[in-house]
Amino acid sequence: MSGIKFSGNRLRTCLLGEFERALELAGPVPRCIVDAGGYIGLVAILFAKRFPSARIICLEPSSDNFRVAARNCACFPNISVFHVALGGKRGTAVLRDRQTGEWGFTIAPVAAGEEYDELEMVGVISVRELMSEHNIESIDVLKLDVEGGEFEVLNDATDWLKVCKLLIVELHERIRPGVTAVYERATKGRIEVHADGEKRLSVLPVRGADY
Question: For 55-115, where are the E strands, in sequence order?
Fold first, then answer.
């Protein structure tokens, strides 16, 4: 695919089934998919190819990654890419490099003694604000891979999780201690379909559904 910036392990894990269970749960015809922490657009493209009629919103805070994601996704008319971070409330934050690679940039606070580089100031938006700005009534899939920023997102999830059918989240306890407890509190009453290391799949209960 012309323009894609291949990053070996990340691309291979997408292609080798990292999201296969999520793709099954998202079907058959999701209307709105949000990819927060979109990196260079690989997962957005994966969903776009499986669900060409879905509206896909890809959010990426890094300017460099955003530019690559925008190029990679340009040939998919159902993907919109935005240079913004998902957080608990609207504002700005410092994007930091934790020395873990270009897919590991974070707006989360850095623990004392941890080495990092400050990259740039980025805009931040909450899920509810995103839904309001883009006239979204419900989210069929929210993929949340924001390197510790999920703490604030999930801590502000009392209303929007009620209209989020599938939550795909990577919990970075090593970056934000306590985030697992925040996730479990936020998703109480939902169905945990899959938990594999950092990745968790949480589904809004639907009567008669077989998970």
Answer: 55-59, 79-82, 85-86, 91-97
Is residue 6 included in any domain, yes or no?
no
- Three-state SS across 106-137? ECCCCCCCCCCEEEEEEEEECHHHHHHHCCCC
Q: Are 194 and 26 in contact (CB under 8 A)?
A: no
Query: Which tens digits make up the pLDDT trace of 104-138?
Result: 788 988 776 677 889 999 999 999 999 999 999 99
Q: Is residue 9 part of a domain?
A: no
pTM for the model stands at 0.90
User: Per-residue pLDDT tens for 55-95?
Assistant: 999 999 999 999 999 999 999 999 999 999 999 999 999 99
Does 144 reside within a domain? yes
